[in-house]
Amino acid sequence: MATLVLMATLDRANEGSGSETFKIDLESSGTITKNLHRSSLVTNIAAGPDATNNGFNVQVNDASVVSMVVDALRVSEDAGIVGLTVTIFPVRAVDTRLSIRTDSVSASDNADFTPGPFSLTIPASEGTAMFQVLIIEDQTDEADEGFSVIVADQGLPDDVALDQPDGPGTLPMTLVPITDSDATEVALTMLDMLAMEGRAETRLRSL
After folding, report:
1. Strand, coil or helix: what is 202?
2. E strands, 27-172, where?
3. Are residues 47 and 124 in the same domain?
């Protein structure tokens, strides 16, 4: 038994409601069994060989592509929230429901931010939707931290695909750096205060 794996390439072209088809032909005779994995981009796989050859057709449908707007984000921990935007193109005639997850990276879940998953709906005929992540302020003087926000590849409609910004297999994501807002406090001991007071008295006497 041999397995043939074909990859449908995600493009950025709006090809409308049409689709593209390619054909697989087997030059040698014999019976073939097709156990094909269906993805959101590949549909309408013929049930068996065509009448003239041991082959079959694979139809690749155009898909609406979901992307995340990657801004030069940097949020202070006392900001309270950070807003992020997801886009879809071409727009769909129905709502698009997405799942958003988070990765703590160098920040801490529920200590520096409220983690996912979150649900997000891009309304029908709309090209963007915005959601917010809660940033949690602490009282610790610490180094800057960060977390990432990712569009999950779960529960997608058949005509929706996720952008692959860093190559095949990657997902739409953005890193959110958190800037610490706790200034270093200077603690004065009683001896420090007495010393300062003594210097002040000496100065007054000299005047």
Report:
1. helix
2. 42-43, 54-61, 64-68, 75-76, 81-89, 96-103, 118-122, 128-134, 145-151, 160-162
3. no
